[in-house]
Amino acid sequence: MDAQDRVSAFVDEHGLEADLAYRVLDLESEVGEVAKEVTTSTGYGSAPEAAEIATDEVGDCLFALLAVAEAADVDAGEALAVALEKYEERIETTGGAGSGE
Predict the structure, then answer these.
(1) Is the Cβ–Cβ distance between 4 and 69 less than 8 Å?
(2) What is the pLDDT of residues 6-16, one digit of tens each?
(3) In this predicted model, what pLDDT tens digit does every residue of 40-74 receive, in sequence order?
(4) DSSP three-state, residue 65
(5) Are 29 and 81 in contact (CB under 8 A)?
(6) How far from the centroid of its chain's Cα atoms is residue 13's Cα?
(7) E strands, the chain, in order
(8) Distance of CA 39 to the CA centre of its chain
(9) What is the pTM (predicted TM-score) of this model?
């Protein structure tokens, strides 16, 4: 069972079904919590080497993202493969993975 299936089974088991819009808002909230941890742990960016993120916060983001994928009927593994292929092509073409390269 892959991670997306695990999240889907958990959602089903605990009656946590939600519309896609709610799932996206939840993801935004969870990523915001990670950003807050980094902001705080780095003294608002003055010490980037001190960045810290709790494992459970990363887990919350992963759960939320996989729940988004499930709600959007997107296979997360396939989506990742497409993204990696896109980044590989950019690196070969421009020398960097960013879209603004």
Answers:
(1) yes
(2) 999 999 999 99
(3) 999 999 999 999 999 999 999 999 999 999 999 99
(4) helix
(5) no
(6) 22
(7) none
(8) 18
(9) 0.89
Percent of the chain with pLDDT over 90: 93
- What is the total residue count of the chain? 101
Secondary structure in 3-state letters for 3-30? HHHHHHHHHHHCCCCCCHHHHHHHHHHH
**77 near 85, Cβ under 8 Å?**
no
C-alpha dist (Å) from residue 42 to 31, 38, 78: 17, 6, 35
CA distance 20 to 91: 32
What is the C-alpha separation between 39 and 56, in angstroms, rounded? Answer: 17
